[in-house]
């Protein structure tokens, strides 16, 4: 019955938002209440879990969201992201930009926290979208999805990748080598198929795009003042490379911390420098100082004010998304699923791959967390690895592919994506939920083919 109630809760949230046009905050809390009560948590425990889920997500990503959105608002006011898009378009061309973005993010940035990547990449994607035509925002949204999340489950040192490797006893060097074969190729093929679907009318800007008023107003303010900044006496935007330092420095700090931990030479000071919260705060301070000295105090304060408005909206939706995930986790659904699946000795490799993929996919659909689904699936399969006629690295990649499947409304990342990318819930279900399902399925034959040569 737990599986049924979880399915009803998730489907109910989707229907409330899409069919009845209920605000996502109300729909998510309603779904959380239903699942908690229907699964037997009780009145008190259900409400307590909702509160704890909200607080837990805020403790993890609250400051990251706040610092990142404020920094993005300041960079937008200094026209940094707009100028970067022009450079990328000039160097790569319009048609290559989404593919290059997906491949680079998958290969180079898995060490960066996925929420941080989204906060930093979404303004760039939104700025590039108009230059890609009617479906530009949908295409860039799919590229951001593939770039961030495919690397997260396939490429070291992505959190999902490292967790799977550790639980299955796969050497990180082996996981890195195979992940670099599967990850970038999966990301590029996903964007290619997604682009073909968009050309066939899968995206409707009138229904699938819906930026929050706070986000639109923040961008309008920056655009309205662009000419004022350029023409004001003694005021000019800094060079592009200097303007991007508030983004580049945090990325270097976080990546160095992750590499140091993976390589075994980390210490308390390196861990401090590599902490994502500190790194983004350093970026925010840098952006604030640059803005103050280039575009002036009035425009800087205006950008900060609009950033605060946007942050509040994002935090509330993200928090209640975390509440639903917490209630689902409290039902101990993974224990039920662990008893539903078993493996027979000597099962063919393809059966083992499909089994690992299916367990991780069902767990992700139910729990709403890629990392939790990957860790739980690896924990379920780990004890029976000796019975499977398949290399551990192949099973690990299959688990990663399954854990990627159909990220949807019970994940706080879904609501961050929906708000930061400026799409409707329907648009997020396409550019995020459908694209992650697409990437998950595309990866399967690649993994199966790889198993033939291992």
UniProtKB/TrEMBL annotation:
Pfam families referenced in this protein's UniProt entry, alphabetically: GntP_permease
Keyword field: Membrane, Transmembrane, Transmembrane helix
Transmembrane segments: 6-26, 57-78, 99-120, 140-168, 175-197, 240-260, 272-291, 311-330, 337-359, 365-385, 392-411, 431-453
Entry-linked InterPro entries: Glcn_transporter (IPR003474)
Keyword Manganese: no
UniProt superkingdom: Bacteria
PANTHER family cross-referenced by the UniProt entry: GNT FAMILY GLUCONATE TRANSPORTER, PERMEASE
Protein name as it appears in the record: D-serine transporter DsdX
The species this protein was found in: Nocardioides aquaticus
